Amino acid sequence: MASLPAVAVFLTALLSGSAYAATAYIDPDLTPSLPTVDPISYVDTSRTEYDRIVLNVDGEPFFYNGVQLRIDKMKNIWNMTDAQISPFFQRVANDGFTVVNSQITWWDIQPDTYYNATESTYIRGGSYATTNYADEASHAIGYDASDDSQQELTYLKFDFTAYTQDQIDAAKVRVYVNAAPDGDVAFSANLYGITNNTWSADTLTWSNAPNHDGIQIQGTNGTDYWLTASSPSWDPINEASYYDFDASAFIVNHCPDGIASFILQPQMNDTAVTNGVTLDGVRGTHPPELWLSSSDSWTFDHVDNVLDWAGAAGLKMEFIWFGSDTTSATEDFRVPYFVYRHVLVQKVQSDGTVVPVMLKNQGYGQGVYWYLTDKNDLALRALEKTALKTLLNHVAVYNAANGDLKTLVGVDVANENSVTHIHGVGDTVYHNPLTWGAYANFSSQAAFVARTEWEYSVNLANGVKESDYPVWTRLNTFTTAEEKSIDYNEAQRLTTGTSLDFVGLDPYSTSTSALYAYGHETVAIGGSNENWASGSNLPMVMENSGATSSAESLLMASLAGGAFYNVYEYMGPDNYGLYYPKSTSTRDFTPVARSSYVADVVATNKLLKALSLDLSAKLPAGAGGTRLVYFNPFSNSTLDQRSIGDFTVSYSPASTGGVGIGILRSDQTLLLASTRNSTVTIAGLSTYGISAVEYGYYTSAGNFVANGTVTYTSTSAGLTVAVLQDQLVHIETKTAFTLP
């Protein structure tokens, strides 16, 4: 148990560490925040009561053995219902994990609202001037300078009178182009908003449609119509896909009655014989949509559901915040649209023009538009911090109303993020004067990027620490991440302090030796060459594949070397899971173990959980500890000899996959466990007299309850014990020995 008050321990954690201070700033007003209430969880870096950096939950050391459950992808890609997802939390708990981490997106708590078009049609000139096309599922826009019959405009009408928010910050119209453009020639379109809402799709023709004169828009610009958006150069209409047009100003300023009408017009190109595309109308498979976005819109139903599911399973939980940057992209199905109205990272093209960096997908499962918002847009920083703080404030209300379970214990504030590279793709980044104004104060772009990354992460961590429900904060990086952040964070820990508790890597490694080293020394792993245990950083393997037969060995090697461990993932569309669904085609999502190794992972998880009191608070010998030893940590031998205290221990598992654990619990108590049947000899222990050798379990208070005795041999050479797989063997001596 902690001997310092929670806030005092947090202060100690914040101010301890090693490295150097920043000499240049982007936001000079940014300072790391401290909790104003006792934290639910924190990282105790003091090493006063314990010999390791300790995760503390509700005042007690906590053993972290986690798995990620991608409920966002279960919903978005597999279209699973809440009823299908919720049982997985109990499955995670049944498999012995102590923590589950799942995504909470900015969209989850500030969702946009969309409305399908209520009416749509297109009109066509020439010999088709009196033809009505309202019954057609597909509409057209097109232009041929030499043939009026090949000129088309599409009309759209939306009714958003049901929208309940007083404030609209952004709006867009999304259309689905259902085939490649004429002649596979890319072109652009214009979206005009018109004030005339009296037209009816059922009667509209080229001859009677309002606000057009041929292909041109007619009326008084700024009174009858407004150009709301045009296809940008970086997003031409060149294939079947969704296309977005910003309509914010028109919706906010010119649609007071909640009805909006638009004309979609092809941009004229006199050199093209034909220039047009077809798109889905209201009767099409993907009807036109109007999206409304408000920074004043909040909902926490999904958050409450997730906390309900985890709490009912007896699990602790981390939120993985999917905000303005997830896997180095700002993805339109994870953020509300008003986020895109802020500064975007731009690239300099070979011709010198500057355009936003962008990736585009074909469907809703992974989002359509991926941009990358600029992390030095201070207005956006403020919005995102408010969102995260509001989320945690809600969790405080939820927790008080639901038994004070303290289910949520941590927040990953950013996932595999980047400053200038969108999803790992590097470009010549444009030094936008709006957000790169402080660049001249830095020695290099790398230094500017490092500061940007740190300020961005700490701003979000501040939102957590300032909330009514402060918990630990972490940041995970990946091979393609631009800045590993750990060195900079440790530099700041000593000087200005930091609200970002620890930084970790997603190594996706199958090397037991590398993961063992990860917990205590510099190691080349996951595209990095870092010491993830430097300063006061808690080493954690934040994502490592569950779809590998060595999953159990990788877990044990990481723990033996001093790191905590998190599996990616339990089951999900990314196919890294310990499990896969029985049949997605028939929507049978019953989890099927990937192979027999999963049973070993589950059994070992349960063994580790039974030892959690010691594993949470003792530093393993592999990282310099003296009272906790892992034998055969690389799972590669049938005989391993190591010291624990003054005793030399020989560990002989029945198979090379066995890993043993030895714990000095007191000056008369030694605990043994093994992941496989094994024989263990402790040299010199017999000289202290053997009082009892029993198997059993420990209560939550740390008291041993015996289930039976264990056969042993005691000679002057030592004590030899047969330790069965996943059994806890408790050895008591008659006299005390010396503890290290």
From TrEMBL:
Keywords: Secreted, Signal. The keyword Signal applies. GO terms for cellular component: extracellular region. It is found in: Secreted. It comes from the Eukaryota. The keyword Transmembrane does not apply. InterPro entries: CBM96, GH. Residues 1-21 form the signal peptide. Residues 113-222 form the Carbohydrate-binding module family domain. This is Carbohydrate-binding module family 96 domain-containing protein. It comes from Aspergillus violaceofuscus (strain CBS 115571). The lineage of its organism: Eukaryota, Fungi, Dikarya, Ascomycota, Pezizomycotina.
